[in-house]
Amino acid sequence: MKLEILGESINEFFDRKTVNFYVDFEKGEKVKLLDVKKELSGRYQDAFLVVNTLKNVFGQRRMNGTAQIYSNEKTARAVLPRYVLKKNGLIEDVKEKEKK
Prior knowledge:
Largest sheet: 4 strands, antiparallel
Number of helices: 4
Radius of gyration: 15 Å
Structural class: alpha+beta
């Protein structure tokens, strides 16, 4: 898996930085959201990172994605929808807890 950053933009209203990137992968390799998050966390160590989208490019071994980097976790939890937090493993669904 090779991750390349395309660009960054700053949103001062929400106190975040949006990063656009793509991931190249080999045939048969599975790209997981949490693996991409770990790779990006290595580059942006001092911030709270959330991967928003990760979509496959039709006909290519490439995925495009966006990530949002917040200065602290409190701001991210206040701004982001619940499904994004769940997708990134930051909260656990109440229904899943009841099943266990």
